[in-house]
Amino acid sequence: MRKSRKGIPIDNTFKQLFCSFTDGTSFHLTHFDDLLRDAGYIETIENSVRAMMSSHSAKRFFKSFSPARLWKFRTLLQDLFIWRLGKELPDIVIQGNAQW
């Protein structure tokens, strides 16, 4: 995925994406620009300012996926989700943005 040494390492990219998606505060790509300026967040995920993604680097990352790769990635995420459900065995699963 990384075509030169100038870019952010792929493991760091995935770490930032998963942290951002897990946080769930915002799913807009411009949120990465806000995180870039948040010193507390950078320390929390144990990163340096230089290694943080901007919205432009996130866009470039997502554009690098072909439709076939996207399908495989979605399948992988679904498999991880089902594996985790099987491990925890919850009584009820609520998907989506449920407001309680």
Task: Give me the secondary-structure topology.
Blueprint: H1 10-23, H2 31-36, H3 39-44, H4 55-63, H5 67-88
Walkthrough of the structure:
The structure is a single chain. This protein is mainly alpha-helical and 100 residues long. The protein has helices spanning 10-23, 31-36, 39-44, 55-63, 67-88. The chain has one domain (10-88).
- The helix-and-strand class reads mainly alpha
Uncertain runs are none
- How many strands appear in the DSSP assignment? 0
Name the shape in a single word: globular
Euclidean distance between termini CA atoms: 40 Å
Question: Treating each run of at least 4 consecutive H or I residues as one helix, how many helices?
Answer: 5
Largest sheet: none
What is the average per-residue confidence, as pLDDT, rounded to a whole number? 87
What is the share of helical residues?
55-70%
Integer-rounded radius of gyration = 16 Å
- The helix/strand series, from N terminus to C terminus, equals HHHHH
Percentage of residues in strands: under 5%
* Count of domain modules: 1
